[in-house]
Amino acid sequence: MPQLVPFFFINQLVFAFAVFVLLIYAFSKYILPRYLRLFAARTFISKL
């Protein structure tokens, strides 16, 4: 049904945006601080 095509694309856009926001939140809250802490520890140990 061609009438539903715009709603399909808007639905895809909304869900893609929601997944994008959730990924950014998860990376900034959980994943990136772990790697940053690891990198800081390696830098500190190598400077000793």
Polypeptide structure, described:
The chain is an all-alpha fold and 48 residues long. It is built from one helix and no strands. The protein has a domain of 25 residues. It holds the Pfam family Fun_ATP-synt_8. Its main location: mitochondrion. GO terms for molecular function: proton-transporting ATP synthase activity, rotational mechanism.
Mean pLDDT: 92
N-to-C span: 68 Å
Largest sheet report: none
Unreliable stretches (pLDDT < 50, length at least 5) are none
The percent range for strand residues is under 5%
Total DSSP helices = 1
Quaternary state of this entry equals: single chain
Shape: rod-shaped
Q: Roughly how much helix do the residues carry, as a percent range?
A: over 70%
DSSP summary, beta strand count: 0
* Structural category: mainly alpha
Rg to the nearest angstrom? 20 Å
Helices and strands, in order, run as H
